[in-house]
Amino acid sequence: MMLGRLLSAFDSRTVRRRDIADFEAGIGDGPTPDAGPIEKLFFGNSGPVVHKWHHYLPVYDHHFAPFREGFRGRPLRFLEIGVYRGGSLAMWRSFFGPEATIFGIDIDPSCAILDGKSGGQVRIGSQDDAGFLRQVVSEMGGVDIVLDDGSHKARHMRRSFDVLFPLLSDGGLYVIEDLQCAYWTKFGGGYQRPGTFIETAKQVIDDMHHWWHGGGTKIAAGGGQVAAMHVYDSIIVLDKDANLSRPVNSRRGGTSASG
Ligand SMILES: C[S@@+](CC[C@H](N)C(=O)[O-])C[C@H]1O[C@@H](n2cnc3c(N)ncnc32)[C@H](O)[C@@H]1O
Predict the structure, then answer these.
(1) For labeling, which of 56, 96, 183, 220 is most exposed (least CB within 10 Å)?
(2) Ligand 1 pocket test, candidate residues 51, 57, 107, 115, most atoms within 8 A of CB
């Protein structure tokens, strides 16, 4: 019996079933005592379904707050990959306000009925279709924040990043969620498996330090324009800076006797 349980724990099909069950289960029951506006909107939602891991909510609140009043003196342009029931687009609309340009894309044609009704414009196509992505960004007039909550497949995440990060505004954010899927075979993932976004993120760290190792930048889309990468459990936020230059240092002061 014991051996049977042990063997079953190592059966890859069992692991896969358990992974998905965990994925659906969610964690926590309600807002934290110091909940920000997005966390409050999520837990107070009685409209169309929005599906988010609870620990993402303070991450959104922290990183999206500076964009709430617009971006560099004009309305924000926000793109979410993965519309589902439209609840997240409605949540972003409530948070960013009526002036923001909010688009969602989804491969599911049934999401088309949400176009203009769920808080944003909805376009139907796949996140791995470069032409489609470029067309959507062109229609938006550019993009300041991308949030990838689409298929969670390794190849798709990377494809979207390769196309969209170069189109992202200087000073914009690229957010990828549900990176636990990068470890799961169903999503093309695996532990330290090349091609997953977790492995891409590790390379981005090397690319951010290209001044110091001489190996150049390997993630072409990043182009040495990742100013910071904020890594949380299963969600990564990349800050874009198109004008990075090699850091400088100096010594200041030194007027005291010991200086
Ligand atoms: C996790 S749901 C999105 C949840 C939604 N953002 C929310 O917070 O409530 C993932 C969505 O991605 C869509 N999707 C799956 N594969 C896709 C692809 N290749 N391109 C675009 N969307 C895709 C699915 O149809 C589904 O609606």
Answers:
(1) 220
(2) 107
> Are residues 23 and 44 located together in one domain of the fold?
no
Looking at the structure, tell me whether residues 25 and 40 fall in a common domain: no
Question: Which structural domain range is residue 9 located in?
Answer: 1-30
Q: Per-residue pLDDT tens for 34-83?
A: 999 999 999 999 999 999 999 999 999 999 999 999 999 999 999 999 99
- Regarding whether 207 and 137 lie in a shared domain, the answer is yes
Contact partners, residue 74, CB within 8 Å, separation at least 6: none
Query: Which ligand 1 atom sits closest to the C-alpha of 50?
Result: 9
**Which alpha helices (DSSP H) does the chain contain, by range?**
2-9, 12-25, 37-43, 56-64, 87-96, 130-140, 154-164, 197-208, 210-213
The answer to whether residue 203 is domain-embedded is yes
Report residues whose beta carbon is within 6 angstroms of any ligand 1 atom: 50-52, 80-84, 87-88, 105-108, 126-128, 149-151, 156
Task: Check: CB of residue 86 under 8 Å from CB of residue 77.
Answer: no
Could you give the number of structural domains in the chain? 2
Q: Whole-prediction pTM value?
A: 0.90
Cα(108) to centroid of ligand 1, in Å? 8
Residues 228 and 122 in one domain: yes
